[in-house]
Design brief:
This is ROK family protein. Pfam families: ROK (PF00480). With about 325 residues, the protein is of the alpha/beta class. The protein has two domains: about 130 residues, ATPase, nucleotide binding domain (Nucleotidyltransferase, domain 5, 2-Layer Sandwich), CATH 3.30.420; about 170 residues, Nucleotidyltransferase, domain 5, CATH 3.30.420.40. It is built from nine helices and twelve strands. A five-stranded mixed beta sheet has the order 3-2-1-4-7, sandwiched between helices. Strand 1 and strand 2 form a beta hairpin. The longest helix is centred in the C-terminal third of the chain and has 25 residues. The chain is globular.
Length: about 325
């Protein structure tokens, strides 16, 4: 017996990926386009339509019953709109309605990219088996999502768990979001590199001034590079502990490009967490690296669509 499938879209500032996914999370068909992020909104939408055209041309498309979208945010799932910071042509863009029109009226489920990655890690990755977890992406920005009581908790607009904009330094640097001392302003890849440069670190010949280069220098024992990662780890620990204190998660999964630094990040993160997660009900909180890799956005978008479908069917 053939099982139903869902279509999945993973939309970011660099790429727009699409897939047909089965109910076990297996990607059966995939396609991708570069995001024309500096172009107008209709040009970006045309790239989405090209991805969907490849999916609808597949012989498997007839089994697709819903579409899940994980998009860079902010998103507004209640309105079906997206306003990605890194795609300026989309402000309040009616993505759900446009995708529904292209796919013949299929149900469309929209969540933020942090929530999508969280759904994937809970379904098949490092958060599998945990009923209450925070999953984070630490990369160019810092995002996240929540699993509460065994289910993804995207919130009314799809942005719940956006840990990157918790303020952890009241007198800290201004953040582009308008607040001060946000986790993202301290712990994102560009800000790790910025802090290291301000401290006197310099990349080697032929190297970019990136968080990956800072991580390599930290592994070699460079004190400024180590200090920059320790500061990032402290900010992450403060944000994770605050989240755990509010909603009693017992696991924080950390992925994204910065997490590839490995022990350079995770060792000081686990140490700092002991200083912030001090109350009895959060002392069992653990941190783990993400497992799902580059397919997390697609798998998570599919999970959201499958969950929504099962909820509707059960009513």
């Amino acid at each position: 017996m053939q099982t139903d499938l869902v279509a999945a879209l993973d939309i970011g500032g660099t790429k727009i990926a699409g897939a047909l996914v089965d109910d076990r999370g297996r990607i059966l068909v995939r396609t991708q386009r570069a995001t024309p992020a500096r172009e107008d909104g209709e040009t970006v939408m045309r790239a989405v339509e090209e991805v969907l055209a490849e999916l609808t041309a597949s012989p498997l498309w007839s089994r697709a019953r819903a579409v899940g979208i994980g998009s860079a945010g902010p998103v507004d799932a209640s309105a079906g709109t997206v306003s990605p910071v890194n795609v300026p042509g989309w402000r309040g863009f009616p993505l759900v309605a446009r995708v529904r029109a292209v796919t013949g009226g299929l149900p469309v489920e929209l969540i933020g990219d942090g929530a999508a990655i969280t759904a994937a890690e809970h379904w098949q990755g490092a958060a599998r088996g945990h009923d209450n977890a925070l999953c984070m992406v630490v990369s160019t920005g810092v995002g996240g999502g929540l699993v509460l009581n065994g289910r993804l908790h995207p919130g009314p607009t799809g942005n719940a768990g956006h840990i990157g904009h918790i303020s952890v330094d009241l007198d800290g640097d201004p953040c582009p979001c308008g607040a001060r001392g946000c986790v993202e302003r301290i712990a994102s890849g560009p800000n790790i590199a910025r802090r290291a440069l301000e401290g006197g670190w310099r990349p080697g010949p032929g190297e970019d001034a990136s968080a990956a280069a800072v991580a390599a220098a930290a592994r070699a024992g460079d004190p400024v590079a180590l200090a920059s990662f320790e500061r990032a780890a402290q900010a992450l620990a403060a944000g994770i502990a605050a989240t755990a204190t509010l909603v009693e998660v017992d696991l924080a999964v950390v992925g994204g490009g910065v997490a590839k630094a490995g022990d350079v990040l995770f060792a000081p993160l686990r140490t700092a967490l002991k200083d912030y997660a001090t109350l009895s009900f959060v002392q069992r909180l653990t941190v783990a690296p993400a497992q799902m890799g580059t397919d997390a956005g697609l798998v998570g978008a599919a999970a959201a669509a499958l969950t929504r479908r099962s909820d509707v069917t059960a009513v």
